[in-house]
UniProtKB/TrEMBL annotation:
GO biological process: methylation
Catalytic activity reported: L-lysyl-[protein] + 3 S-adenosyl-L-methionine = N(6),N(6),N(6)-trimethyl-L-lysyl-[protein] + 3 S-adenosyl-L-homocysteine + 3 H(+)
Family annotation (InterPro entries): DNA_methylase_N6_adenine_CS, Efm5/EEF1AKMT1, Mlase_EEF1AKMT1/ZCCHC4, SAM-dependent_MTases_sf
Annotated Pfam families: N6-adenineMlase
Natural source organism: Atrichornis clamosus
One CC-aspect GO term: cytoplasm
Keyword Methyltransferase recorded: yes
Gene Ontology MF, one: nucleic acid binding
Keywords, alphabetical: Cytoplasm, Methyltransferase, Transferase
UniProt subcellular location: Cytoplasm
Protein name: EFMT1 methyltransferase
Domain of life: Eukaryota
Length: 214
């Protein structure tokens, strides 16, 4: 009787089991890293992607390249706003001591661990911003709208235009090229951004100034 009962227990395939073990091992390593002194709260991946929020972090190389471009574009003592672009914010914060300031506008409240530089942001309410966030007070706004839809881009564009003194660096899908030009007057760059996990849609950068991304 006992043997018959055992047959009813669903067995995981060896492939699934191996994948599960790998997942738990990665999780343990991450937890270990978080408790070690070497852990950097600004490193990409310190806050994990939430796909339900359409989050896909840039590769380390891409985030570094965009952060470098942001600093150059903002200029000495410049102010940079990262709108729905947390991995660029994190990379900028790793450059501690550089002569610029940065804030992060983000829907995901996990990023509130970054203190006063975190500003809760919902693109559905593009101008619902704190009073101390004055219009045209940022030398550069870098934005990565969470969804590839004209509505999302249009609403995020309202926020960008409110915040920027002029310079815009937009990261979105190649299919949004016409809408990006229409709503923000930006042109596609030669630089091709990459993510830590491959996306199905081709991704590109767009600017409205002479940038180092061409």
């Amino acid at each position: 009787k006992m043997d018959d009962d055992d047959d009813d227990i669903p067995q995981l395939s060896s492939h699934t089991l191996a994948a599960l073990q790998e997942f738990y091992l990665e999780q343990q390593q991450r937890e270990g890293m978080k408790t070690s002194q070497e852990f950097n709260q600004y490193s990409i991946g310190s806050i994990e992607e939430d796909w339900q929020l359409s989050q896909f972090w840039y590769s380390d190389e891409t985030a570094s390249c965009l952060a470098k471009e942001a600093v150059l574009a903002a200029g000495k003592g410049g102010r940079i706003a990262c709108v729905s672009a947390p991995s660029v914010y994190q990379k900028l914060k790793e450059q501690d001591g550089e002569d610029f300031s940065v804030c992060i506008l983000e829907y995901d409240r996990r990023f509130s661990v970054y203190g006063e530089e975190f500003i809760f942001y919902d693109y559905n309410h593009p101008l619902n911003l704190p009073e101390n966030l004055l219009p045209h007070s940022f030398d550069l706004v870098i934005a990565d709208p969470p969804y590839l839809s004209e509505e999302c881009l249009q609403k995020t564009a309202e926020t960008i235009k409110y915040l920027t003194k002029g310079k815009i660096l937009l990261c979105t899908g190649a299919i949004m090229e016409e809408q990006a030009a229409e709503h923000l007057g930006v042109k596609m760059c030669k630089f091709i951004p990459k993510h830590s996990r491959n996306l199905a849609n081709e991704f590109r950068c767009y600017v409205n100034y002479a940038s180092g991304l061409d």
